[in-house]
Amino acid sequence: MSLNKSETWKWKNWEISWSLSKNSTSEKNTKILLVHGFGASKKHWRHNQDFLGKFSNCYAIDLLGFGKSSQPSALLNYEPDKKNSIKYSFDLWGNQISTFCAEVIKSPVYLVGNSIGGVIALKAAEILKDNCKGVILIDCAQRTMDDKRLKQSDILMNLLRPVLKTIVRQRVISNTLFTRAANPKVIKKILEQAYPSGKNIDEELIEILYKPSQRKNSKEAFRGFINLFDDYLATDLFDKVDAPIQLIWGEKDPWESLNEAKEWKQQFSNIQRLDIIHGAGHCPHDEEPEQTNELINEFIQETK
Fold first, then answer.
1. Which domain CATH number covers 30?
2. AB hydrolase-1 domain: which residues (predicted)?
3. What is the largest CA-CA distance in the chain?
């Protein structure tokens, strides 16, 4: 387990926090960048970064709005531009990751993303083109609330959709939802859903998720994200990525469908592997890190 020292990279007007695995050296040709999911941070890779760092220079990064990175205010589509405000989106985060690769890593890279970090990794891979050697998606977000996934036959949801959008646009509503979720007891209950085996739900993990939520502007990325009703789906991006793709999936993920992941594997030729981790949930890299680390390493050795 490792909580590596944070470094800071200046991107546009913001400070981005990142870390590098121990024992890194210029002699290691393989580079890996770990991209966390919603509400998490680079520290969520506590059981992965230094293991993968034995074979590569392994980086982890805090997305804008999360962890120790800057937290500009959320700007929604209908709102006028304001100083220190940004429209949170997969384009924004994808550009953050691709620019970090170009300016800091300066080498072809494998991108590893969990949950929404998977969609971000795909968008970054599209931008990086040949400078992305492979993409590893761990329980990639399927974004079932996106407008593009709404079935015309679902009359009730079509009727409620405009009301839902109007409600979550209100900052007082998003702030209230965030505040209720951002306490250790609620975080633990959410983790018990996400980690069905209960493995590695410990005080350190709760602190990793809780501490960044107490920063002054931590509510803003939450507001921006819950208002993303029309952004990229993973299926929009697979065909735009030339690099080989690996899917790693927790068998008991309560939020992202394993059956849908199996459909992706059948549908898209650049998805070379679907590896299922039995008994695990939404974050198998932290719940079952030994298996996940070995699967990532196998894929990299096969494709590098």
1. 3.40.50.1820
2. 32-289
3. 59
How do residues 236-269 score in pLDDT, each as one tens digit?
999 999 999 999 999 999 999 999 999 999 999 9
Measured CA to CA in angstroms, residue 296 lies from 7, 19, 277 at distances of 25, 19, 12
Which residue has better confidence, 247 or 220?
247
Q: Is pLDDT of 153 > 60? A: no
Residue 90 maps to a domain: yes
* Alpha-carbon gap, residue 252 to 258, rounded angstroms: 8
Domain that includes residue 243, residue range: 7-303
Report yes or no on 256 lying in a domain. Answer: yes
Average pLDDT score over residue span 66-88: 89
Please, what sign has the CA dihedral across residues 88, 89, 95, 101? Answer: positive
Q: Which two tokens stand for residue 284?
A: 């198998």
Q: Residue 198 falls within a domain, yes or no?
A: yes
d(CA 41, CA 66): 6
pTM reported for the whole predicted model: 0.92
- Residue from 132, 29, 130, 116 nearest 65 by CA: 116
Residue 2 is assigned to a structural domain of this protein: no
Question: How many domains in the chain?
Answer: 1
How crowded is residue 269: how many other Cβ atoms within 10 Å of its Cβ?
Answer: 11
